[in-house]
Design goal:
single chain; Rossmann fold; 2 domains; seven-stranded parallel sheet; six-stranded parallel sheet; 16% strand
Length: 371
């Protein structure tokens, strides 16, 4: 693989052009765009599934080639045939259709001098599934990939994948793209004291009830916003306004307008730790005052009480909101923005990926593979 001319990368993921029921969309966009900025050529293969193409947030970008294939076995087979000549073949977790087929097919589809990467965008959940089922079909395939990249999880995830035979496992954390997530004027649609944005998912709903809905109930005079798909019909306190799906074009205004924005991790990521959600960095990039549920490792990314507020439960969320003034919220948001722009942009992550793809990924299995 010649770095001088850039790498050709075939990336099989859920969707690059639609964030509809696709929480990894902005992560994909940030990583792929930053790799393109470094001269690499990415073709993103995504299935026409779950009405995502009907809810696009963006047209095909000029920094990646997007191939939308039919959600059929013939469609995915043709897509993989077209990708065989790439320097790097990537299979992301959670494509949504034919995941098991792709996981088995991609390692054998790579050319002799190419590498195959499994990129896990929900490693805690993937590992929990594998540990619960010794017959999980992905378990024996892990060692056939040259490396596993994850978008979080820290040493617990690295160690678990190493124990399952991964040649190399490296977290490539979420980040911010300063060109897409930045401070904007406030928008009356999103005026509130506390706002949360996230799709309704089984391993998140109980935590949303605990950290957001309970906090809202404790602040009946405070307006709270709930954004994301799937919340229609969910019983909420009277002071909670449900917005439905919030398109990515509105994310900056959603982050900038409320007094505070709340991050709530999915259960698997909170229990594993070291798994900052994409929206943590997006909100910080927009200089939002961010309150997060407590999880191990938050201080590695943002400093509690100076760049982010941390809450152990809904009562602490409500206490943070009650104590905030607009001046204090602005101070926290600006400090967070400075931190992520200096350490946590997708340009930082793309350099990390490039160094891995041209160096450590090629190393043989050994003690150093789990470092």
């Amino acid at each position: 693989m010649a770095l001088s001319s850039g790498l050709s990368i075939a990336f099989f993921g859920s969707s690059l052009v639609s964030a509809y029921w696709n929480g990894a969309a902005t992560y994909y966009r940030g990583i792929v765009k930053a790799l393109a900025d470094r001269g690499h050529r990415v073709t993103f293969y995504e299935p026409d599934a779950y009405d995502r193409q009907k809810h696009r947030d963006m047209p095909d970008p000029d920094w990646a080639r997007v191939v939308v294939y039919p959600a059929t076995i013939d469609g995915v087979s043709r897509a993989l045939d077209a990708a065989r000549g790439a320097d790097v073949l990537v299979k992301a977790s959670g494509v949504g259709v034919f995941d098991e087929w792709l996981e088995a097919a991609i390692p054998s589809a790579r050319a002799a001098d190419a590498v195959a990467i499994f990129w896990d965008v929900d490693a805690p959940a993937t590992l929990d599934r594998i540990m619960r089922d010794p017959a999980d079909p992905f378990r024996p395939l892990i060692s056939s990939y040259d490396a596993v990249f994850t978008y979080g999880g820290g040493q617990p995830v690295v160690g678990a994948y190493g124990d399952l035979g991964a040649r190399l496992c490296v977290p490539v954390y979420n980040a911010v793209d300063p060109a897409t997530h930045f401070a904007v004027p406030s928008d009356p649609r999103f005026e509130a004291d506390l706002a949360f944005l996230g799709n309704r998912l089984p391993d998140r709903e109980a935590r949303v009830e605990r950290f957001f809905l309970h906090a809202a109930a404790m602040m009946p005079d405070r307006l709270c916003l709930l954004g994301g798909a799937g919340w229609a019909g969910k019983p909420v306190p009277d002071n909670v306004h449900c917005l439905g799906h919030v398109y990515t074009a509105d994310h900056n205004a959603f982050n900038c307008t409320p007094l505070a924005v709340l991050n709530i991790s999915r259960e698997s990521m909170a229990s594993t730790g070291y798994s900052p959600a994409t929206r943590v960095f997006e909100a910080a990039g927009a200089a939002a005052c961010l309150i997060t549920d407590a999880w191990t490792g938050v201080e590695l990314f943002l400093e509690p009480d100076r760049e982010i507020l941390v809450a152990a439960d809904g009562e602490e969320v409500a206490a943070h909101v009650d104590a905030l003034t607009p001046e204090r919220a602005q101070q926290i948001g600006r400090a967070a923005q400075r931190r992520v722009l200096s350490e946590h942009t997708y340009a930082h992550r793309a350099l990390q990926v490039e160094e891995l793809l041209t160096g450590r990924v090629r190393r043989p299995v050994g003690a150093g593979a789990r470092a």
